[in-house]
Write a structure and sequence with these properties.
Structural class: mainly alpha
Number of helices: 4
Radius of gyration: 42 Å
Helix content: 55-70%
Strand order of the largest sheet: 2-4-3
Strand content: 5-15%
Oligomer: single chain
Order of helices and strands: HEHEHHEEE
């Protein structure tokens, strides 16, 4: 409602103006209540979705950890199987030959001393590590650390590899005084195949 300029409002006009204001306020309150209800429903939906997404993420993390652990064990088992299989296969004289120790006579030329031929990248790497200090007794964990650092299953794979090389007479296996630990020393001259 509008008031004519210069006229004082009558009581009836003021009452009707207040009624109009009441209606406007009531309509505004209702619209805001509806907006608040819609926003609250949206917030609740979002909270449920956030909770569900968080739970699914935690499940995915657990599954990933299990898969990584399984894969590490599986790869270690494959390496052990390959080493065992290689150990059971008949050795070819061309690849690996056991040579009797050279006589201590100074007249014997070094060219007459036969050497073992070692094949396989990991075998050659392990032999190079042990040859770096041939008088030392090397533990499987030390060689594993130098070969694969802290990879899962590295010690187990390296122990299988060293056992294989020992069976080929490339390494000599010695035990600690209490018999609980095994160590490996260079047992023959060798070269990469």
């Amino acid at each position: 409602m509008s008031l004519i300029d210069g006229c004082s409002p009558s009581a009836d006009w003021v009452a009707k103006d207040m009624e109009a204001m009441l209606r406007e306020c009531s309509a505004l309150i209702l619209s805001k209540d509806e907006l608040v209800r819609r926003l609250q429903a949206t917030v609740e939906t979002l909270q449920r979705e956030i909770a569900q997404a968080s739970e699914e993420r935690e499940q995915a993390i657990l599954q990933r950890e299990k898969a990584l652990e399984w894969l590490g064990n599986f790869q270690a088992t494959i390496q052990e199987g390959a080493a065992l299989r290689a150990a059971l296969q008949p050795q070819k004289p061309v690849q690996l030959r056991l040579v009797p120790p050279a006589p201590e006579s100074p007249a014997a030329p070094s060219a007459d001393i036969p050497t073992l031929r070692i094949g396989g990248a990991r075998s050659i790497a392990a032999m190079r590590i042990i040859s770096s200090d041939p008088r030392r007794a090397w533990g499987a964990s030390e060689v594993a650390r130098l070969l694969e650092e802290d990879a899962r299953g590295a010690v187990r794979r390296t122990r299988c590899l060293l056992e294989h090389l020992q069976r080929l007479s490339a390494l000599q296996k010695v035990h600690s005084p209490d018999g609980k630990r095994a160590y490996y020393r260079l047992a023959a001259s060798w070269e990469a195949a």
